[in-house]
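Cross-check.
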Amino acid sequence: MLIDKLFTKYDTQGEKGVNYLSEHFVFLLSWLITSFFVYLAHIIFPDSVVLGNYKFGLIDAIIYSGFWISFLNWAIKDLVVVRGLHPESRFGSLVFYILIGSAAVWTVARFAPFTGLGIVNYRWALLLGLFIGFSVARVKTFIKPAR
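Predicted model, tokenized:
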């Protein structure tokens, strides 16, 4: 079936791998988690994390900024892995995801007129990056993309 091919992978022994999902589904899940944390930060701290501007409404800003944060996380991670600089330990990977998440939030917030996400200062980028990086790292430990 198409759904089996999309979401599962068969290993060489013919057994179905339960934890294997396609790379696209993992990116979509990362995008949803990132958008949720950005929205949650906006709801809890509306003066520090602003969603929406003259171009984007609230929903548009959530979707668009969540996408760009997830895309930057994915692109930077792949770039580091290709260069052979990815940390081997779990703690190192967690710190890596948190730093990359913070950098992605900061970058997206600096382009607020084009993304719809604004933050007050770098501390909010670090805080959002902490939650986004931790959750994406946890999701990636539970779900192994098919390669």
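The mean pLDDT is 82. The radius of gyration is 17 Å. Passed to J.P. for a second look.
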